[in-house]
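Re: weekly structure request thread

Next one in the queue (351 aa):
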Amino acid sequence: MFALSWNESNDHSGNTPNMLTQTASDVLTDKFGRQITDLRISVTDRCNFRCVYCRSADPENHMAEHKLLSWDELERLARILVGLGIRKVRVTGGEPLVRPGVEEFISSLRAMGVQDLSLTTNGQSLAERCERLVAAGLNRINISLDSLDRAKFEKITRTRSFDRVIAGIDAAQASPLRPVKVNAVLVRGINDDEVESFAEFARERDLIMRFIEFMPLDADRAWTRDLMVPAAEVKSRIEARWPLVPVAHERSETARKYRFAGGRGEIGLIAPVTQPFCGFCSRIRLTADGKLRTCLFSRDDHDLRGLLRGGAGDSEVAAEIRGIVMQKEAGHRINEPDFVPPSRTMVYIGG
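Done, posted below.
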């Protein structure tokens, strides 16, 4: 597949990452020929929101601290994966900004040579952190906002943070992170009446408004297909008011993008349920407790933490990763009669 040269002279304890250099242009490839270039890294399962489509209203049940990867362990795995051809990294949670040290971690990723570095956040503390994130080397940002109505926002997130999130969006939009991507998960009967308002929000602020189909990843297992708002419906409703022009996208991108023909702003439609994009998937996910997942809906995790803490060298870890990637699923099977939701919900997997 590709050739790597390894320097095995370093300590194998995991405290000092072994150095590796990629000597061929090839990247990780699965058995279906898909190149794996994108990595989502969850740095925590903790979140200061309790969104109805993601997290239960029940009392907190965080993973024990010792089960989470340390920053050094996260950096070591990231460095190995970058050496294997990963070029896009998104830092996620939970809510990544609740874990101290995120800016330093982003800076370390930038020093590794990550070409495209982004972060997903609920925006609650973004206004005061934005400048530091930019200084650390962040390229792009995704901010969750599931309602423009304060009361509805509080119902969905189970918080009173609306003003802080809007301030975070405005701060990011005024920074080098512009244009900001704002993500809304539409749930029938809760916020599906706001499609046009969200589109107007994108036009007013000249940002990218992305609509995400509700997926069976909620902690309360309340998902049904009737609660999901199809992307085609969203597009039709927006086009009834504002003509849309398609925007070119990479085959592996999750969103189908459109700009307004007669105004500022952009729309993104992410339709994993009604228009699966599995055939061109380029992503793998690393959870905060050191599990590698080859699909958002994988039934199984693949443990890397045990290797790190068991003294494995970088070449051994890399070989394990290559083997895991070869097991990547053809698709998520949401629309198949035998589909079974993953054992982990979104907050434990990473967005």
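The first strand starts at residue 4 and ends at 7. Residues 87 and 146 are 29 Å apart (CA to CA).
Next request, please.
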